[in-house]
Amino acid sequence: MAAPASKTGMQLPVAGDIHLWVAREWSPLKEVSQQQYADWLNAEEKERWQRFRFAGDRQRFLQARALVRDVLGQYLQQAPASLQFTRNIYGKPQLQQQPAPLQFNLSHTRGLLVLAVAVDAEVGVDVEAVTREVEMLALAERFFAPAETALIKIRAEPEQRECFFRLWTLKEAYVKARGLGLQLGLDSFAFHFDADDQPQLTMTVANDDVANWSFVQLPYAEEFRIAVAVQSAAGKPLQVHLREWV
């Protein structure tokens, strides 16, 4: 179970820093923890939670909301249940009436949840399990920019999976950071990797200043890949601080 919110709070990230909170999915969630986290939910969250038919989906949703509320509550020195959220017109969650310019984004895949926290910067995060069975080339040809599909195809077969998931997590993180939802087509921008194997963004159709974006990718355990996208006026290199929420 996560620690209760600190009375003194946690230090907010500084400019150019990203706090990345990871949590393994619980199985099963203790009844006392479930009751505590359920008490943190607002009416809309409780309604969504109760709509899930399967126990695993219900637990995953509850853990995700608890992670967000507990961590942000500690940063803001507020009780988890007191936090209020809103969404932009495309559905991206945001804090409402926050005392600090705190930005966050959540991603989860079966087995792992990831929360990215930044200050004064739009942030997006995506996590995927490379063990997932997916039709890589079919998905890339349908959704990726042509140059990205070609980037996968030129690799030897054992390397294609890693390349696919690197591109997939980068694209999802960027879309989530932009906060435009389905309005931003996955083929309207593209990633490639420079001589130092660092991700580089280019525009194919979308209109954006790529100089203001920074990206970080990192593995977690053997099976997970995480990508973080951050937009700031400075466009500085990112420092990611990995923390575990248990």
Radius of gyration over all CA atoms, rounded: 18 Å
User: Could you tell me how far the N terminus lies from the C terminus, measured between alpha carbons in angstroms?
Assistant: 6 Å
Look at the helices and sheets and give the structural class.
Answer: alpha+beta
Label the overall shape: globular
Count of helical regions: 6
Please tally the β strands and state the result: 11
Compact summary:
The chain has 246 residues and is an alpha+beta fold. It has helices spanning 31-40, 43-51, 55-76, 136-143, 146-153, 157-178; strands at 17-24, 85-87, 93-95, 102-109, 112-119, 122-129, 189-193, 199-203, 213-220, 224-231, 239-244.
Structural commentary:
With about 250 residues, this protein is an alpha+beta fold. It is about 30% helix and about 30% strand. The chain contains 6 helices and 11 strands. The protein has a 4-stranded mixed β-sheet with strand order 4-5-1-11, with helices on one face. Helix 1 crosses helix 3, helix 2 (about 45-50) packs antiparallel against helix 3 (about 55-75) and helix 5 runs antiparallel to helix 6. The protein is globular, with a radius of gyration of 18 Å. The model is unreliable at about 1-10 (pLDDT under 50).
